[in-house]
Write a structure and sequence with these properties.
The protein has about 450 residues and is an alpha+beta fold. The protein has two domains: about 300 residues, no CATH class; about 130 residues, Muramoyl-pentapeptide Carboxypeptidase, domain 2. Helix content is about 60%, strand content about 5%. The strands form two sheets. Strands 3, 4, 5, 6 and 7 form a five-stranded antiparallel β-sheet that branches. A two-stranded antiparallel sheet has the order 1-2. β6 and β7 form a beta hairpin. α1 packs across α6, α3 crosses α4 and α4 packs antiparallel against α6. The radius of gyration is 52 Å and the shape is rod-shaped.
Length: about 450
């Protein structure tokens, strides 16, 4: 018998005679059970994403993702063009300069106050989004760590499956080779006696048929154990791959949420910088504009009437007459007389005040609008209390308007009997009401 066949036959007979578990010898380094901590690889629960709304782009500040209205802004509408206008160079012409400064002083405080409100809202937004982004950074680190651990487990599972598969293939090959060798050259009595430790046994007691039958049964058990082990390894690998997929999805989702949160945070920080810079600029510009306006008005005071468009014919050159105690321009005297006669006949004792000089108009503007030249000559009539026309712009200065009263009491509401009568009859006589003042009636409703 050749040395090779003798060694293979001895291995088979030794296993049978001494009842050694061949499966342990074949797969001793490949346990069929998973490591104790295999099933502890749970998906880490990440913190919920902060409730931060992705905001549409709209209005000033012109930063994508920032919407002041969405943040609760309720102030003056902010306009980048208006803000640029406030700081633009002023015209040289005095009239244009005064007009432009007046516009800027009118829009400037509203823009400044609006920017201050926007600044606080943006500060709050940044303070809210910052911790949310930081929380997501921590969650991403946890997700990445879990993904790495899951990947390692999957790699170990693949190695176990590969080892078991290789062991089964080797076992099957060995089974075939030993069976062929034993069939071709059955072991002699001396070899068997040596294997069995010197027992008195003959070749007939250990016939080839009995040996091969026992060996076949044992090899089948080993094969079955390896196949079960492979099936278990495949299940573990599938489970590991599921964990890896879940971990990877969680990492990707968290990274996306973090990128969105950081984009929102960066947008609000940029908007805050723009708003803070614009507010500081306006804070500096408004006092300078006011000083420039006062200086320009003072320098051009001698030409003020020309600059603001006063009709010089109204300065003492208007002829007047008196109708039932009301001083007016002679051109409308007949129609006013007829109106008053009609009203008295209807039991509505109307009276009133008509012409006033430009000097008196200036006194009223100083009283109703403010003491400065700007207040008297430039402030809008609607900004005064009560509303009062600019000097040179009032129909009273031309004698073409009447402030009516009823039995000596001002007609201050549209429910007054005096107003109701005038609303029905005044147009017949060429008098029309200024909508903002129930008592004021003129030839052109101004």
């Amino acid at each position: 018998m050749s040395p090779l066949r003798t060694r293979r036959t001895l291995a088979v007979l030794a296993a049978l005679a001494l009842s050694l578990p061949v499966a342990t010898g074949v797969a001793g380094a490949l346990p069929t059970e998973p490591p104790p901590d295999w099933d502890s690889a749970e998906v880490v629960e990440l913190p919920e994403e902060p409730d931060a709304q992705l905001m549409p782009t709209s209005g000033y500040p012109d930063v994508p993702g920032v919407d002041l209205l969405g943040l609760g802004y309720q102030g003056e509408p902010l306009d980048a063009e208006l803000l640029d206008r406030i700081g633009a160079p002023l015209p040289e012409d005095p009239e244009a300069r005064i007009g432009e400064i007046s516009v800027r002083l009118e829009i400037g405080p509203g823009q400044r106050d609006g920017l201050a409100e926007a600044q606080e809202l943006l500060r709050t937004a940044v303070a809210t989004l910052g911790p949310g982004a930081e929380q997501l950074r921590g969650a991403l680190a946890v997700a990445q760590r879990h993904e790495a651990e899951a990947t390692t487990r999957a790699s170990e599972a693949r190695q176990r499956l590969s080892s078991r598969t290789e062991a089964l293939a080797t076992h099957r090959q060995d089974m075939a080779e030993v069976a062929v060798a034993a069939y071709v050259s059955p072991p002699d009595a001396d070899v068997l006696a040596q294997v069995l430790g010197g027992a008195a046994t003959t070749t007939s007691d250990l016939s080839a048929g009995v040996l091969f039958s026992a060996k076949a049964d044992h090899d089948g058990l080993v094969r079955d154990e390896l196949e079960v082990s492979i099936a278990v390894a495949k299940e573990r690998l599938a489970a590991a791959r599921t964990v890896v997929a879940a971990a990877t999805a969680r990492t990707t989702a968290t990274a996306t949420s973090l990128a969105e949160a950081e984009t929102r945070l960066d947008a609000h920080r940029l908007a805050l910088e723009l708003v803070e810079a614009a507010r500081l600029t306006i804070e500096e510009q408004l006092p300078a504009l006011q000083a420039d306006l006062d200086r320009t008005i003072e320098e051009t005071w001698g030409r003020l009437e020309e600059l603001i468009g006063i009709d010089v014919t109204a300065l003492g050159g208007v002829p007047t007459t008196v109708v039932k105690g009301i001083t007016i321009h002679p051109a409308i005297a007949p129609r006013l007389h007829a109106l008053l006669e009609h009203a008295h006949a209807d039991g509505v004792p109307l009276g009133g005040w008509g012409h006033r000089s430009t000097e008196r108009q200036i006194e009223l503007r100083r009283k109703h609008c403010g003491p400065t030249p700007e207040d008297i000559f430039l402030k809008k009539a609607s900004a005064c209390s009560p509303p009062t026309a600019k000097p040179g712009k009032s129909m009273h200065e031309r004698g073409l308007a009447v402030d009516f009263h009823l039995a000596g009491r001002s007609i201050s509401t549209r429910s007054s009997p005096g107003y109701l009568w005038l609303a029905e009859h005044a147009a017949t006589y060429g008098f029309y009401n200024l909508p903002s003042e129930p008592w004021h009636w003129s030839v052109n409703a101004k």
